[in-house]
């Protein structure tokens, strides 16, 4: 590791510890030339995910788009920011675990709907109405009736 102070190419690791919930290793290093210390971080290189949109366009995966969509659906609902971040974490983990390099946006939308359905019915309906692009009140009511029937079967 190149020293940021003198540019020397050799350093020794003085201390290592996990960081960021064990997803990163923090290393304290000491330059063998000038003896100054500096910190480096080691992280697993994640393969970039490409999202295939409905119209065929491809774009890089952006976590904030999932969070923003969930935030809008959960606005003025009893869902904490921590819960929203956990939902995004779970979706992201599932996406990376598939080992697919390209993922259809439809699949992500379905994952968000499945999680919201378990967390909050109103947030689910809000998200579904935008995601499924309800064209009229009848398609909206069909989705609501499905939700009502499923909830009555659970009780």
From TrEMBL:
Q: Which domain of life is it from?
A: Bacteria
Q: Which GO terms describe its molecular function?
A: ATP binding; DNA binding; zinc ion binding
Domain named ATP-cone: which ranges? 49-139
Its keywords, alphabetically, are: ATP-binding, DNA-binding, Metal-binding, Nucleotide-binding, Repressor, Transcription, Transcription regulation, Zinc, Zinc-finger
Named cofactor requirement(s): Zn(2+)
Residue spans annotated as Zn fingers (unnamed) read 3-34
One Pfam family for this entry, by name? Zn_ribbon_NrdR
The free-text cofactor remark is: Binds 1 zinc ion.
GO biological process per UniProt: negative regulation of DNA-templated transcription
Similarity comment text for this entry: Belongs to the NrdR family.
Instruction: Name the PANTHER family for this protein.
Output: TRANSCRIPTIONAL REPRESSOR NRDR
The job of this chain, per UniProt, is described as: Negatively regulates transcription of bacterial ribonucleotide reductase nrd genes and operons by binding to NrdR-boxes.
According to UniProt, the name of this protein is: Transcriptional repressor NrdR
């Amino acid at each position: 590791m190149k020293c940021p102070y003198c540019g020397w190419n050799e350093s020794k690791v003085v201390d290592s510890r996990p960081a960021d919930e064990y997803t990163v290793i923090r290393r304290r290093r000491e330059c063998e030339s000038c003896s100054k210390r500096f910190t480096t971080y080691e992280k697993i290189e994640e393969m970039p995910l490409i999202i295939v949109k409905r119209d065929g366009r491809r774009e890089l995966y952006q976590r904030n788009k999932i969070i923003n969509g969930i935030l809008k659906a959960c606005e003025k609902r009893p869902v904490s920011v921590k819960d929203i971040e956990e939902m995004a974490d779970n979706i992201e983990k599932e996406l990376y675990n598939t080992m697919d390099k390209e993922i259809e946006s439809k699949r992500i939308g379905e994952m968000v709907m499945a999680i919201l359905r378990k967390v909050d019915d109103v947030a689910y309906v809000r998200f579904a109405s935008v995601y499924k692009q309800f064209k009229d009140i009848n398609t909206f009511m069909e989705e609501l009736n499905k939700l009502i029937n499923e909830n009555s079967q659970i009780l």
